[in-house]
Amino acid sequence: MLGAAVFVCGAGAHAGGSAVSAPTSPAARSAASAKTAGKAFSSQALPADLKRFLDQVQSRYEGLQDFRAHFTQETRVQTAPVAEKASGEVFFRKPGQMRWNYEKPEPQEIVISRGKLWQYVPGDHQVVVQGFDAARVEYTFLTGVGKIARDFKPRWSRPKTRPGDGLTYIDLLPRDEQASFSKVTLGVRSSDHRILATEVTDLFGNVTVIRFENLRDNLKLSNETFVFKVPKGVDVIDTTEGHPAS
Questions:
Q1: CA–CA separation, 75 vs 80, rounded Å?
Q2: What tens digit of pLDDT does each residue of 66-108 get?
Q3: 172 found inside a domain
Q4: Structural Rg of the chain based on CA atoms
Q5: Residue 18: inside a domain, yes or no?
Q6: Is 227 exposed, middle or buried (0-12, 13-18, 19+ CB in 10 A)?
Q7: Residue 134: which of 113, 109, 111, 110 has the closest Cα?
Q8: What is each CA distance from 207 to 83, 89, 113, 162, 217, in whole angstroms?
């Protein structure tokens, strides 16, 4: 599933390689509603220390044009006794372009660009193409148009810090009752206000955690990085109507 992704990052796939659930039109409606609600929200309602912290995170994010990093992902499903784990490398460029190269537990690629999402699992010998709505509120921060205090209801997480990782945590709650998530939690490094962890909790209590390491910023990543080339001899399942698969 896409997690996070949000926010930066964040997106990811189900560790077992199942098809990604792409955003749909109700999600776009959710995003529009959230933005409308945000206009009526005053950031002055936030505690002063939280507002200052969010402003610093927002400023750090707005200065980021692209990045490359190693990521680890863990998905905890309420009905499963064991968490699913995955890892690989991610590339991100504003606005709205991402590539996730999964290395473990099995190779797969996810490319998001030009309003589409391509998922390729070599073991399945197929490529699935789906629409991707970059306006969905869960993804706006990651895709280059998001404002934390406008799009979400932020609060300090409880606990605010956790032993061992040196991060400060904030929760982002949805403004729209029809949102498809219940909470996004960001783990922020206080020294430079860089997001190093995202946790997306869905409406059923399932949690996807993504952590980033070895980040390199503003590399001027090439256009080719975000172009998916369909391998020869694989099936293409294109769920977007009236558009080519590549």
A1: 10
A2: 999 999 999 999 898 899 999 999 999 988 899 999 999 999 9
A3: yes
A4: 17
A5: no
A6: middle
A7: 113
A8: 10, 20, 25, 17, 27
Instruction: Count the helix, strand and coil residues of the chain and give each as a percent rounded to the nearest 5.
Output: 20, 40, 40
Cβ atoms of residues 192 and 179 within 8 Å: no
Percent of the chain residues topping a pLDDT of 90: 54
Higher pLDDT pick, 152 / 22: 152
Side chain identity, residue 244: P
| Structure tokens, 137 | 């509120």
Residues 106, 17: contact at Cβ < 8 Å?
A: yes
Q: What is the CATH number of the domain that holds 87?
A: 2.50.20.10
What does the block give as tokens for 4? 């996070």
Domain count, the chain: 1
Q: Answer yes or no: is 183 within a domain.
A: yes
**194: containing domain:** 25-238
Residue-wise pLDDT for 156-171, tens only, equals 999 999 988 899 999 9
